[in-house]
Amino acid sequence: MHSNPILGVIFHWLGGLASGSFYVPYKGVKKWAWEVYWLVGGVFMWIICPVFFAWLITKDNNAFAVFSAIWKKEGITPFIWPYVFGIMWGFGGLTFGLTMRYLGMSLGMGVALGYCTVFGTLLPPLLKCFVDLGAAVPKSLGDIVQTTGGQVTMVGIAVTVAGIAIAARAGLAKEREMPEAEKKKAIAEFSFKKGILVATFSGIMSAGMAFAITAGNPLATAIEAAGTDKLWAGIPRLVVILLGGFTTNLVLCVWLNIKNKTGYQYFATHLRSGHANLAPQNLPQPAAVRPPDEAALRIPRVSNYFFSALAGITWYFQFFFYNMGESQMGDYSFASWTLHMASIIIFSTLWGVYFKEWSGVSKKAKLLITAGIATLILSTIVIGYGTLLDKNKKPDPASAQSAQSAQSV
């Protein structure tokens, strides 16, 4: 199958639209604690959708037969790194939800994905300086900075840091300027300090997905060799990668269920009165002085499961389209991660504007968040260009195979 970079760009932007939009359905969830609706959505994100689509799109529905054959022949080794990197990403995915909770969609996405762009570029080669990660990470950081393309990439990283700083400054201005009632109206649990700390951790750990996908390339190659079209062949590796993410989120959400005593909410028809204000967006504000009546405590279970499932399915499609886009980029597949990041930032910012997360703030704050987002988008272009400089160089025969693997990191 011939590559089609234009089609690849379209697929990447569809993936960015899915990622930038997935948190919107969660706004329809009422009277559930965060850990409840996040885990329900997560079952669709990380288990149901990956398994279903891996089965659906492979030739003769043979994805798991291929995985079984690999396991029998090579053991667990081909599955380890995709799963481990998936666990790493899982910590980022979990705290990414908290980022949206504390900062909202526009600022939260911008800051978290800025960090994700930086560490998605730097962390794999930095680890390679100390640990042999094989073909999953072809170059160490020392190798990168010795090339022109590597130096341009480092400039792009510096631009990203600047974008993060500008977006953070906008968030600080927003916190100082907006009346408390306006903050809570747009983002029920807005907290700049908590949000920045969580976004930093989330962005670093979420970078694991960038090289989890590359670590799963042998699985994609095996699926393609078994007869599945190249356009779809990368999708089944998400089963292994997202299983790692599910492991992290399951443990932490269940722990929160126990700690907050919210596990009953998965099946309950009514909130316990002590949990009435657990999620401030669930009840009208200000809260009534008297205890909430039975109607106020009733949990809309059907709609909660529907919106959580819709959020999870929407989230999954970001990497469904990502894999399709990567398969079409050919010599330009190096740009996949940066295209993904840029499109997510743009669409999430548009959603943030739609939900009036920046209403009631000064013109200065609005200009700052606009400049921050624009700087982050510029940084992805610079990083992609730096990678292009090296990709245009003809590799020596000994490194040709490693160069091909490097294209999607």
Give an overview in words.
By secondary structure, the protein is mainly alpha-helical. It has one domain. Helix content is 71%, strand content 0%. The chain is built from 18 helices and no strands. α1 runs antiparallel to α15. The protein starts with a helix and ends with a helix. The C terminus is likely disordered.
Features:
71% helix, 409 residues, disordered C terminus, 18 helices, mainly alpha, globular
Q: How many structural domains in the coordinates?
A: 1
Distance between the termini: 22 Å
What global shape is seen?
Answer: globular
* Beta-strand residue fraction: under 5%
| Continuous helix count | 18
- Strand tally: 0
* Average of pLDDT: 79
The major β-sheet equals:
none
The structural class is mainly alpha
Stretches where pLDDT is under 50 for at least 5 consecutive residues are 279-289, 395-409
| Helix content, binned percent | over 70%
List SSEs in N-to-C order.
HHHHHHHHHHHHHHHHHH
Based on CA atoms alone, the radius of gyration comes out at: 22 Å
